[in-house]
């Protein structure tokens, strides 16, 4: 099970959430055929894919404006429970929760993405 939580832009609370149990690929973007549709001018039609892989989950950035973790541009990276993605430098933030969660409570921490040097771009 994986839950994506759209964070409120001004507070550390949930604005909306989506839970998936049997989806191997979850698409996020502005286009209506994405699993998660976000209405923001800085979000690309196809901005991010979250893919299930042998080791867990992986984020793949597809958007022209980039995807960021801790202010760093990422292209492809493994996911750790609680990671917060920012779609574009000033765009919406989405937290990823893995496994069974009792609530969609936002958990603290932004350094939860294990990055490999070859998957992180320079700002």
TrEMBL record:
Q: Which domain of life is it from?
A: Bacteria
| Every FHA domain range | 26-74
Q: Which residues cross the membrane?
A: none
Q: Which InterPro entries match?
A: FHA_dom (IPR000253), SMAD_FHA_dom_sf (IPR008984)
Listed name of the protein: FHA domain-containing protein
This chain's source organism reads Cyanomargarita calcarea GSE-NOS-MK-12-04C
According to the entry, what is the taxonomic lineage of the organism?
Bacteria, Bacillati, Cyanobacteriota, Cyanophyceae, Nostocales
